[in-house]
């Protein structure tokens, strides 16, 4: 039972590492804990009152939760952009970044699952969804596909880094023959989770705004822009606050990925806009609502008109090598790109699907404080999980955490 | 499925219909699910008390109309209940054998336990259906001292329900809407309504965009005509395909129904319905005890709980008993026609064969069993 002993010592060591740190670190963790507690309090109110505590109605039956869920699936999928070159193409540059990327994927997936559960009307009967005990409407319902691929992806993204760290913890090299197959699998899997999530919406003939063939590919493009953009920001923070060394070269390479994805995303956006506005049909009304408002109802205008300029600006900045290689500009562009895509692929995508309603009724949606509280709480939980994972991983990689025989 | 004996035009999209089958774990309806295990640390009395508190708790003192065992999760008891359900599991049976605590409380706890962990109605056999219906009736009696009757009647052979709506006749009186709410025990607080009546302007055609489905003035309004929508009981219902747990399905007589106890409240079906046919219980539905329609069907107008989806069932409690749905009966103008599409002598068949009928959004391939026509 040597392995178990090593594992036990790893847990003890990492708990040690997590609970110790600079003052800033403690403030950060305390802040996250506070946000999580607040989120839990809001969620308890929602459990008590039912989903009427949120801004959702029969007319707009999905809102902030599902929007965030959709966006975060994209962030999770993006880890693959780092996995592929590192493990498969032996591009040594990315090696340190990839552990961070996978940690990010795990945190994002946990947030995804939390958002789905927060959105459920009956969390107490969630077991109805567990295959074997409940009834799993597979393969008819895309939601069951999503449950499968998300959990599978979570499993992959936990096991691969765990294996590597576990080996390094014992001062051994990790064997490529063990993790490379897993890494290759996760490459395809990441594309899978994103396409399946897009199909969730794309497959609904009732909602013309979603029922278009570009939705899936655009999901991929925007995910591969927003995810690595977030990774760049996180790496920048880690570089500043820890001894973990990340080469400029690594960040520049990831920036390249972000740039290409952002450019493709922009092309697809243009194609979408052309289709909706050159020859508008009855089905273009949702897009009209999103971009110009309908019948004086304009709740989404400020959002989308923040997102589009940010998106364009970031893409332009990233396109020029000079600007992209300047780290200040790079971090700024990554940040605004992330925000822009969060808006666009979040409620810029979900809410207009319901507006106008099936019979043209325009009922707007505004999230309530409770809803926003739960959302912030879940984001804080994601950040918390990520911080813990990253701290342990960095400790091991720096050689601070080692198994003592 | 009856897709091979169609009596109307369909889009021939080569759609293959599969009889879907699912796995269901516990369809057990009686006898709890543990073995007779004694709980070592607690006496039976303590255990019974704990189990009852955990499972019904405050509901012991609750008034009326709550026949549904919505395991209510509030701030105080959410965690308590989660752990308690395991506890009850271990000893539900041993509790029911003890004679110390009140028989009725024990029975309630037992019923709640079985209801919380029963299977999907769609997959139950007739005995199991009877079992759950009996438990629900008994539980209502235990809680309120009043009796309801609840049916679990299955679809009959050679019946396929269909509906036709005469646009020329409808005057927008909304009697159908009120009758529906009363018949189907819909939540009064949120004013949930299955039927929407769209008021349209003469001369604009069927322009839903400019129609008003929420008017409060005297009808019929000058220069307007009216058109009602509700769930159309699609023969190829997209809402059914998307449900992750098969909590909603198409019955053999064409009714699209929901098992309120199986629904997890994801609202995917609402997003998938092109006809605004579904409603969600955003908070706990409430109906004053005196207004409750006590003639119920498991798949129809029995009391719902918070966080589940519901919809028009063509009044399954009435239609399977050979009556017209409440809206048809209530309509003062005779604009609504309901009947068996497979019966060549039915009025609905006469309408389909002699009037110029149409359906909404036929291009989506959902095949609603709800036709519109004009005189
Ligand atoms: S009208 Fe909507 S809810 Fe009714 S069967 Fe068709 S898709 Fe389902
Ligand atoms: S809300 Fe209920 S009936 Fe609708 S898809 Fe979800 S589980 Fe199925």
TrEMBL record, chain A:
Topology class, membrane: Multi-pass membrane protein
Coiled coil location: none
Predominant subcellular localization, coarse grouping: membrane
Membrane-spanning intervals of the chain: 27-46, 66-85, 97-118, 147-166, 178-201, 221-242, 254-274, 300-320, 327-343, 376-396
Keywords annotated in UniProt: Cell membrane, Membrane, Transmembrane, Transmembrane helix
PANTHER family for this protein: POLYSULPHIDE REDUCTASE NRFD, PTHR43044
Listed NCBIfam families: DsrP
Name this polypeptide is given: Prokaryotic molybdopterin-containing oxidoreductase family, membrane subunit
Native source organism of the sequence: Algibacter luteus
Automatic annotation (TrEMBL), chain B:
Keywords: 4Fe-4S, Iron, Iron-sulfur, Metal-binding
Domain 4Fe-4S ferredoxin-type, residue spans: 254-283
PANTHER family membership: PROTEIN NRFC (PTHR43177), PROTEIN NRFC HOMOLOG (PTHR43177:SF3)
Source organism per UniProt: Algibacter luteus
GO MF entries: 4 iron, 4 sulfur cluster binding; metal ion binding
Listed name of the protein: Prokaryotic molybdopterin-containing oxidoreductase family, iron-sulfur binding subunit
Superkingdom of origin: Bacteria
Metal-binding recorded as keyword: yes
InterPro entries hit by this protein: 4Fe4S_Fe-S-bd, 4Fe4S_Fe_S_CS, ET_IronSulfur_Cluster-Binding
Keyword Metal-binding: yes
Database matches in Pfam families: Fer4_11
Gene3D superfamilies associated with the record: 3.30.70.20
Membrane-spanning segments: none
